[in-house]
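INTERNAL AUDIT FORM
Audit reference: QA-55
Scope: verify that the stored structure record matches its stored sequence.
Auditor: D.O.
Record contents follow.
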Amino acid sequence: MILREFADSDAEKIVRWTGSEREFRLWCADRYEKYPISAADMTAMYDECGKTGAFFPMTAVEEDIVGHLILRYTDEKHETVRFGFVIVDNAVRGSGRGRKMLELAKEYAVKVLNARKLTLGVFDVNTAALRCYKSVGFTETGCDDEAFEVLGESWKCIELECVV
């Protein structure tokens, strides 16, 4: 598997994985009030965010696209990188590819982006993702007291970090 920069041609396949809000919320490692609903929306959002110099959408490829995530600086010194929109193709979930993608992203954040700390958030109902994040070195740092109402369910976001 390799991790490469997002290409506009990746958007259509990635958006198919987020075909329903329920599935997207279960896969997503970060909380979004609005998520891309078309490949064009995703590409436009990434193009706009990319102009900041602090936003890095990445695609995991293993013969075909198997995963996607966003890395972004969260501080002015560019020492903290937040992982977000972490998704793996449903066809390969549970096969270890998500863990491999996270390991590659962690390495990229440290070696290329010079991160000293990595952060992310995961909904408390996504126990499989939480186990995966912990397996690559993330630890829980807290939980939002305020729950989110998503599709009639009350979810909280657990914050995690990894100091490198």
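Auditor finding: record pair retrieved intact. The chain has one domain: 2-163.
Action required: none
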